[in-house]
What we know:
By secondary structure, the protein is mostly helical. The protein is built from 7 helices and 2 strands; from the N terminus they run H-H-H-H-H-H-E-E-H. The protein has helices spanning about 1-35, 40-50, 60-80, 85-110, 115-130, 145, 195-205, and strands spanning about 155-160, 185.
Amino acid sequence: xxxxxxxxxxxxxxxxxxxxxxxxxxxxxxxxxxxxxxxxxxxxxxxxxxxxxxxxxxxxxxxxxxxxxxxxxxxxxxxxxxxxxxxxxxxxxxxxxxxxxxxxxxxxxxxxxxxxxxxxxxxxxxxxxxxxxxxxxxxxxxxxxxxxxxxxxxxxxxxxxxxxxxxxxxxxxxxxxxxxxxxxxxxxxxxxxxxxxxxxxxxxxxxxxxxx
Length: 212
């Protein structure tokens, strides 16, 4: 029993690690480099236009597909190894790796950081949004950005006021003091009109940051 649990735990770690590589590859190549040539890329680049997180019923279909993909990885592992613990561990690890990413990505847009890792994650991710869309593709860990040399570490993230995260701002609409070392606001706070949204969309679909 103990050996089976250890085998499952090791396979789970391998499955999660496998997801983190997919997180990078999907984000960089399937979403950004193809510049909207398929639905997943278009949906992701629209996320860059809004720079926020809102629930979309489409995401439920993605959750289901991820679970099915996890079963597929598990079935492949079962076929290769003939070991059920390895198969379940890899399949569950890969799927939960995705759900962990989805949760943390949502939290980055909606909630302030609660620890040093969250602070890093938000600064890393929002530089991807507002500084350089072709860098910082990993959301949850920096491993594959480091491997492929796509990491950038700005002193401060320059956030357009009209796209600023609500958790970043105080009651007067300025950066809260606890975040002032990592973020600065630029541009106007007026909501984008139709013309500005069109400009933002055009820039997002060629991997350029929104203008302030």
